[in-house]
């Protein structure tokens, strides 16, 4: 047994690209992102009254009350790093005063963008950006926490932590698309957005990050919000899953450039382990075959407008607003409120990232 252990350690030391074995552990997780992973940064001290995601029935499955999470319960990170896997607690939002961030912190905040405010202002979209928490700012928040996390030995501490950077991009595209920009115009922004993401990843590497998951964007053409706002009478605009082709093509373009960008970063920093989190293909598969993931409904919203339309979605009666209500069986749904997923969906996604095949390479290996 001892000889096998020695061999195992030797292999791990020699193989930098696959540094962690099946018994791998992390001392902390640090997350950056938007509403897909925010665990309450916009609601420390209480959710603003205007925030629909801060109203019931958000949080009703697990917490019993709204917590600032844009779903019915726990987020994906809980399932990635629950006690039975890495012994890590629920990630506290970085804005929560008095929290201990040594085992992790969540910088993600609802509405976050990749690009800074001046980018959107230059496009005439300044009024569409209501939250000052872009990627650069979240990295600054993280840097402000470092003295309390790791003191003067941050490189060593962070090298044994896991970082998730994203997804970023969804809100960068929502703003111009909802603001009336053409698809061609929006696709023109993608290279700048990818460059910003990879730059952020390099900044974290410079601080000491070694294991980093960078997710792509989801198939936005499959979300009931988009399907309702941009519905078409032309069946050729839809794919076999009932999703809007042109909007999904934007996601595919973003994800393709992101993977190229990450390959460049990986080549520059061979001792770093970059992992691509594939939201797109997993969510697409969940829409196509919800039963394969323990679900019943792919494109139907759980918390929505009382059975209206094909998707139970009405933009004027969104979840948390008057006229909307939640289903009684959210564990059967992929989509919670039209643009965010359910706790059950996040659990499946976490499994797909931990063991594969939806994270390349898989977090566990």
From TrEMBL:
A GO molecular function held by the record: hydrolase activity, acting on ester bonds
Keywords: Glycoprotein, Hydrolase, Signal
Segment forming the signal sequence: 1-18
Coiled-coil region(s): none
Alphabetical list of PANTHER family matching this protein: OS01G0214600 PROTEIN, ZINC FINGER FYVE DOMAIN CONTAINING PROTEIN
Similarity comment: family membership: Belongs to the 'GDSL' lipolytic enzyme family.
Protein name (Swiss-Prot/TrEMBL): Esterase
Taxonomic source organism: Oryza punctata
